[in-house]
Amino acid sequence: MTIPTEPIGSIPRPAELIGALSEFAAGRLGQAELDAVTERALADTLTRFEHTGSPVVTDGEQTKSSFATYPLDGATSLGSDGAVIPFADGHSRQLPVLTGGPFRYASFAEKYFQEAGRHTALPVKQAVIAPSALSLLYPSDGLADYPREQFIADLVDQSEADIRRCLDAGAASVQLDFTEGRLSLKLDPSRGLLRSFVDLNNQVLDRFSAQERERIGVHTCPGGDQDSTHSLDVDYAELLPDLFGLHAGRFYLQLASEPDRRRVLQIIREHAPAGAQVFVGVIDPIDPRVETPEEVRDRVLEAAEFIPADRLGTCDDCGFSPFADDTSTSRDTAFAKIAARVEGTALARAVLGV
Ligand SMILES: [Zn+2]
């Protein structure tokens, strides 16, 4: 089958799970009770994913605290006042800050992959956080007994292990979430920060063979939280040439919500590495309206004018709730949009004869 189609990762959590997570955090719910709620949410998510016809599924990130912070679940040596991510609607998210070394992941993404696999026979994709995002945990004024160079060396080791464990466990693909790429251009229009992010991520990617990298992808987007973005106003043209310098075999690119898709597709055609698979976003998770399969088909056909069909794939622009408590999109809407993506991609395949 050509023109593969994949989700990005997150599905809105059921109200029961969000409630149970906050009760557990407050010490009012036991581990066994939380586990039972989690199990129900996972089973329902995988069942509904299968009903969309999606050839590749995820665990919907039902038990991830967020796309970026899961490695810190259970970690110590963290303070609360780290880097702030401001969104266009005025709300913000704040990362923790490291207060001491050595830096180690307290949780690895492989556990989510394994849990999903107990609920489905379909291929499962696993998203991991890009090391460049976690590099923001290191305090700007340094740590006395833990120099930044040592932190970066530890981070590269840990990120490699996070990816490798998913690959070795049999993940259909492993996707590095790199939402801070586009955001970095707001903080540093000279692209210096972006290039340092690309270099850091390549330090990790270069530890994998070319064959392994065929299953490793990078996701870029302007952020998606509470139906708002953090960097949609940053010109994609400023990001894409450097983004395609990442040594990944796949790119999962937000595209549906771009005001001028053809201009972006032109840049993709000029700069995407020759051997890479390019998944373009044909669903906008922030738009509450569910796209029709015909709309999706037309977006795929438009992309196929610029990207050869044997290198083209489709995806959603972003996850549907990268942060666990985001309920701005309903589960029904998320799954309806995924079903439209799957059906619309199949319609495009029929037109293209591939
Ligand atoms: Zn995203």
Automatic annotation (TrEMBL):
This is 5-methyltetrahydropteroyltriglutamate--homocysteine methyltransferase. InterPro entries: Met_Synth_C/arc, UROD/MetE-like_sf. Keywords: Methyltransferase, Transferase. Transmembrane segments: none annotated. GO terms for biological process: methionine biosynthetic process; methylation. Residues 4-321 form the Cobalamin-independent methionine synthase MetE C-terminal/archaeal domain. Gene3D superfamilies: 3.20.20.210. GO terms for molecular function: 5-methyltetrahydropteroyltriglutamate-homocysteine S-methyltransferase activity; zinc ion binding. It holds the Pfam family Meth_synt_2. It comes from the Bacteria.
